[in-house]
């Protein structure tokens, strides 16, 4: 049967016009009545992206002049889950289908054949009434160029045990879950099935309501692409508490860790291989078992001899940043980069570090416990669109095996599985598209997404590491959340020229010609060096080391052809050097802290009172504090004072920033007192000078958010009235380029509408301001507390979100981005933030938002959805 996909795109135009394109898609199989025969099937992708590598574009198919007939459509709203797997919302006849679904996509002959096998396995399991397997709904194939060619739709089984997060509030009943595990393993045994990929990430936990109305838990097993049916299968006795998940379906049982540590490891591995070889021969599967030493050398050489694939830039306009950014103007004067020194030995030093790591490993007579090879994944494409996709390519296809090998050899060689305590990653946020450079990538200890960060290791590592080692790693994470930070460029000619020119110093006094002056970003790169307290900073896959006043650089490395050493070996050496450097600096910090405590206790002139209370404040200071507290009680007065001031002086005083001169922001949008109709705003005239009572002062603090629209900082807003200074905690949202500023102005208009309708649960809006030096646009909001995602436990006030959302909908606004990060809780007060995706034209999206909110308030995992 032939179906059509009409792909809906949001343009970047101010009016957000929707465009539709059509391309043919074949439904290969359909094993459920969920997807009945339809005229068209419509696929909507958030932000015009089907995944991180392919974007919807006119080249995909025929342009449609009108919106497709939705009465005959099946709509799939996609949200990335992991890799090529997406959660999706299914809409039939304009209404959402109850339940949650997953779309698994594949491209290329090998991936598609694997997905077909997995689909057939699901059908066989369903026919055999196998418990603990998710429902499957159909297999689709697309012939459109640039799109994934095969897709499998299945039920959403819940959160995996490896990646379950705070959004999943299902209480874990251990005995029940273990019993479910055992039942699944027993069914594998009874049906003679070898899963071959039993890991924690393939066991998913979900919460549902039974016939009696009570909430129950279900455990399902996914990831069946490598499963096989055997004639006779030995008994399976492993349980989640006694063995790793990936060994539960083999013919022998992994010994407990305590036994393995006290037994000769080589004998254990030899016996395991012999048992696997005998079992394979008995079942007709002849496996080639290599000696243990060969596995060690092969795994190490696979990483040390690896060079990545050559990337090609697709024809998409990429916007280079300005050479000097807003933040660069506010660096602390003492941290300006004064020298760039060439050190040709860095490559050799990193190579020696990697060689020394293997030498130490072999000198201790150790051997790798994992009998699987450590391989690099083959990229499905060699084309990238911008810096973010170059970074994604590096994380997925280069850094992961390097991190794993470095961590295994240096910290846990006795681990029976490939695992790592370090990773190269990027904070999960919404980032703009078609960027020239990306700064947010870093090497770090594996940790969660919410501050304060918590370690997130694989369970097998949690068992191996003792409490003392885990405590040391916690201190390590608190002191150095980033070990290496990298600025990654798009694969454009401009980026290559920028990198090449960076290492060609001109003689003193030499004037740059037009060609040299056209190379942007060099100053920006150099000024970024002191921004992070990490060991090293790497730019476009080469490196710099941090020093107080200088940067040490090495020649540019051709990552695709470099030999002796190859690129993989350099990465392992770089990672290990950064970890060891941070360990040494942590020791210095501890020693310095002890010395400071000792000196401060000796220098104390007068002891504290015996009862441990603080000394009373002086009369003058006490009166000033009381006056300030009294002034802070009047929010209406504060809003009025802010509203009549058109100039905001912004001074950065945090981390490495200390503004030599404050930035001047002029008001471009009025303050919005709750319940009042905003007056017609007219741009104020600039004055030659301002008194202290005619401007406000803003001191932004640490960054608390970053996304497509811009960067958000926590800060302090101060206004001086006569002899008093009144302050409030605020959130300053900065938008830098034209598209971001357009989105921020749209968000300000939504706030104006909500305030005019007197909607509760909206942060105080102090106004919209523009940097007078053609810099960023700033939206100034009140500070609303912690996000729902950052809350450790369920607290009071969550039920108030429902009432607030209803009021927002009654004002004719759909939020468009309901998720925990955009929901704030401050005691019993709750607030919605981030209205840059809000819409006032499609009321049908509001019902879906209510359902998403109900799931959140009830503690169910949330589904992010960009409304129609």
From TrEMBL:
- Recorded superkingdom: Eukaryota
Where do the record's region annotations for Disordered lie? 232-262, 590-622
Keyword Transferase listed? The answer is: yes
Residues in Protein kinase domain copies: 698-868
Which terms in the Gene Ontology molecular function aspect does this entry carry?
ATP binding; protein serine/threonine kinase activity
Keyword set, alphabetical order: ATP-binding, Kinase, Nucleotide-binding, Serine/threonine-protein kinase, Transferase
**Sorted alphabetically, which Pfam families does this protein's record hold?**
Kdo
Magnesium among the record's keywords?
no
Question: Biased-composition ranges for Polar residues?
Answer: 232-241
InterPro entries in the record: CDPK_Ser/Thr_kinases, Kinase-like_dom_sf, Prot_kinase_dom
What's this protein's name?
Predicted protein
In which organism is this protein found? Laccaria bicolor (strain S238N-H82 / ATCC MYA-4686) (Bicoloured deceiver)
